[in-house]
């Protein structure tokens, strides 16, 4: 008996402080609903472990006590992977940057001075930023007093990968999961075409700087699009862990990689490194490509980025 045509099923939920969308092709509606629900469960599980906003998350318990016993394998893995990105970027990616982010946030929050921190305040706070001081012994993670970790540049990508793994484990061969613009695309559509992903042109609604055709790849963008229009929007949510100041050289960095965690972390890394060092890092890595928009609105691509672009659109 011939199988029916596959159905397209999609669902969106608010998790991890963003909108997460999962979309699959499947042959049974009930199975599709259950499968997608299970995938969202994996995203929620990641959020429970790694959220900065949940008081009882393992991440917050570590930040509160500077030690965490019986840490989950997931947290070990993400922290371990984070130190890899730190080492290949000479510290441009560093999950111990939270004290610097908190310093800037306090200055520009109610009760703050609404003035940038002094150089002395930044220098003092930077003493708490050093990924090399994260110690893992057995199943316990240690950090030094005052150090705090934030996983905003990597946890979302990891959560998408977890959701995708769940879908694949349940037999789904054609799907995507996107969390606030960080997405991973598996297989092809039933007609054999790849997944189409557009990179929004900040100057023109509905227009795209690039249109990518993806199969078994992920893409993520880091940046501050408001700076495309306004020099006043200088305080980026992405700071350079080496200087304590907002990264200013790029408006955005988009990275294509096999996993969303790689794309997510490397997009942040390239944004911090800037044009020259960022492109050099990407060219040194196998199977990774990027597109960057510089602060003076130039668009630059790594050598292999065009292989993913649809030039007919």
Question: If you had to describe this structure to a student in words, what would you say it looks like?
Answer:
Strand 6 and strand 7 form a beta hairpin. The chain has helices spanning 29-50, 58-65, 73-88, 98-107, 119-126, 155-169, 226-229, 260-273, 275-284; strands at residues 7-15, 18-26, 67-68, 135-137, 140-142, 175-179, 182-186, 195-200, 208-214, 217-223, 250-257, 289-294, 299-301. The protein is built from 9 helices and 13 strands. The two termini are 39 Å apart. The strands form 3 sheets. An 8-stranded antiparallel β-sheet has the order 1-2-6-7-10-11-12-13. The longest helix is centred in the first third of the chain and has 22 residues, at 29-50. It is an alpha+beta fold. Helices cover 34% and strands 23% of the residues. Among the domains are: 58-142, ApbE-like superfamily (T-fold, Orthogonal Bundle), CATH 1.10.3980.10; 194-308, ApbE-like domains (T-fold, Roll). The radius of gyration is 20 Å and the shape is globular.
What's the rounded overall pLDDT mean? 93
Q: Can you give the helix content as a percent range?
A: 25-40%
Oligomeric nature of the chains: single chain
Question: Structural class, from helix and strand content?
Answer: alpha+beta
What is the ordering of alpha helices and beta strands? EEHHEHHHEEHEEEEEHEHHEE
How far apart are the termini? 39 Å
List unreliable stretches of 5+ residues. none
**CATH structural class of the domain at 194-308:** Alpha Beta
DSSP helical segment count: 9
The CATH H-level homologous superfamily of the domain at 194-308: ApbE-like domains
Q: Please give the CATH architecture of the domain at 194-308.
A: Roll
């Amino acid at each position: 008996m011939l199988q029916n045509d596959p159905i397209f099923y999609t669902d969106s939920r608010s998790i991890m402080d963003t909108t997460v969308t999962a979309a699959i092709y499947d042959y049974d509606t009930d199975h599709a609903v259950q499968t997608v629900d299970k995938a969202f469960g994996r995203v929620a599980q990641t959020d429970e472990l790694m959220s900065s906003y949940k008081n009882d998350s393992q991440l917050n318990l570590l930040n509160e006590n500077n030690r965490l016993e019986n840490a989950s394998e997931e947290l070990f893995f993400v922290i371990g992977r984070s130190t890899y990105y730190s080492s290949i970027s000479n510290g441009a990616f560093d999950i111990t940057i939270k004290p610097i982010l908190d310093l800037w946030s306090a200055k520009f929050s109610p009760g703050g001075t609404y003035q940038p921190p002094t150089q002395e305040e930044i220098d003092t706070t930077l003493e708490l930023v050093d990924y090399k001081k994260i110690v893992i012994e057995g199943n316990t993670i240690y950090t030094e007093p005052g150090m705090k970790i934030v996983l905003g540049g990597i946890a979302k990508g990891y959560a998408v990968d977890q959701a995708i793994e769940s879908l694949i484990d349940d037999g789904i061969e054609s799907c995507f999961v996107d969390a606030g613009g960080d997405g991973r695309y598996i297989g092809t559509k039933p007609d054999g075409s790849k997944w189409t992903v557009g990179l929004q042109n900040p100057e023109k609604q509905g227009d795209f700087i690039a249109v990518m055709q993806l199969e078994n790849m992920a893409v993520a963008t880091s940046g501050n699009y408001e700076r495309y229009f306004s020099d006043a929007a200088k305080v980026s949510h992405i700071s350079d862990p080496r200087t304590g100041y907002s990264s200013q050289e790029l408006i955005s960095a988009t990275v294509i990689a096999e996993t969303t965690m790689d794309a997510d972390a490397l997009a942040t890394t390239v944004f911090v490194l800037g044009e020259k060092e960022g492109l050099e890092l990407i060219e040194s890595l196998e199977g990774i490509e990027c597109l960057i928009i510089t602060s003076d609105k130039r668009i630059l691509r790594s050598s292999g980025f065009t292989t993913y672009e649809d030039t007919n659109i």
